[in-house]
Amino acid sequence: MEILVGFVVLIGAVTLINLLLTLAVVRRLRRLDERPAAQAAAPPQLDELPAGSPVPRFRSRTLAGEAITSDDLLGQETVFAFFDTGCSVCKTVIPKLAAHADANGLKPGQVVVVIGDQGAESGEYTRELDGVATVIVEPRMGPVAQEFGIQGVPAFVRADAEGVVMRSGTTVAALVPVST
Question: Sorted alphabetically, which PROSITE patterns does this protein's record hold (predicted)?
């Protein structure tokens, strides 16, 4: 009989400890849920182009053969996107970039896409970007990507009308302003 009483007391103690631990976990989860949105993790920015830095000066030609420079883009908010035809992720991100441009009313002159082409493979990319962006095709990590200091793709930069980087990162989400 004493063994049975001891066993019941032991089970009761283990159950009580389990209940206290469960309550502690629930309380911790509620605290995490109540965090303000501003404290939520924002997408990391590109080290090479942090917010507040000037947009690098560049000169290139668009796919249509028109000259384009960084000075041409002053006076309007601009989104820069860097892709490479050898990047498997890049192709899947293009529709997200197009949706972002559409949702934010960005004209093709406000979205500049630089495609690093490894050998006449840019056709698939340029078809999806037709009417959405101004496209520059250059060799892999070519002159414009080098001016921006791009280390990997995909990469995105959002600049204000004065040519100052507002946001940068490796996802389209990096283009969305952080709400305060």
Answer: THIOREDOXIN_2
Q: Please give the DSSP secondary-structure letter assigned to residue 180.
A: -
pLDDT tens across the length of the chain (180 residues):
889 888 899 999 999 999 998 988 888 888 776 665 544 555 678 888 899 999 999 999 998 899 999 999 999 999 999 999 988 898 899 999 999 999 999 999 999 999 998 667 778 888 888 899 999 999 988 999 999 999 989 999 999 999 999 999 999 988 886 544
Burial category of 47 from C-beta neighbours within 10 Å (exposed 0-12, middle 13-18, buried 19 and up): exposed
CB neighbourhood size of 94 (10 A):
23
C-alpha dist (Å) from residue 55 to 71, 78, 133, 139: 10, 10, 18, 21
What residue spans define the domains of the chain?
Answer: 2-39, 59-175
Task: Place domain 59-175 in its CATH homologous superfamily.
Answer: Glutaredoxin (3.40.30.10)
Side-chain half-sphere exposure of 120, counting CA atoms within 13 A: 0
Taking the CB of residue 163, how many other CB atoms lie within 10 A of it?
A: 16
